[in-house]
Automatic annotation (TrEMBL):
It comes from Streptomyces xinghaiensis. Pfam families: HTH_31. Residues 12-66 form the HTH cro/C1-type domain. GO terms for molecular function: DNA binding. This is XRE family transcriptional regulator. InterPro entries: Cro/C1-type_HTH (IPR001387), Lambda_DNA-bd_dom_sf (IPR010982).
Length: 126
């Protein structure tokens, strides 16, 4: 199952790290506790629209840009899941336990890895 909160957290973390900022700096600017922001970045907590707005303001990034990145990663994860459903034998499908999406900036392709308990299947989407 693809968790939207995980994808959102990954995008927010990358935005923060691109700026070379710490969790403490962003949490202070957004007026959010450091622990809660950390949980949002790790996909453990759902961010309300108000909280997401405050975090985006603190990062000086448009919420639409964040949501666009999340949408792109969700599309890739869905593509990877579909590919896994087609390439993984039916008895193994329930064994899939995680989907990780890695974007490589400046490279014209996205690499998507679907991890199963005993093997990984790489799918390259153009």
């Amino acid at each position: 199952m693809i968790l939207l909160r995980r994808l959102l957290g990954d995008v927010l973390r990358r935005q923060r790290q691109r700026q070379g900022r710490t969790l403490r700096e962003v949490s202070s600017s957004a007026r959010v506790s450091l622990g809660y922001l950390s949980e949002v970045e790790r996909g453990q907590k759902e961010a309300s629209s108000e909280l997401l707005s405050a975090i985006c303001d603190a990062l000086d990034v448009r919420m639409s840009q964040v949501m666009r990145e999340v949408s792109d990663e969700l599309s890739l994860a869905e593509l990877a899941q579909s590919a896994a459903d087609e390439t993984v034998p039916a008895p193994m499908r329930p064994m899939l336990n995680s989907v990780s999406v890695t974007s490589v900036t400046g490279v014209p392709e996205e690499r998507v890895t679907i991890k199963a308990p005993t093997e990984a299947v790489d799918v390259v989407a153009a």
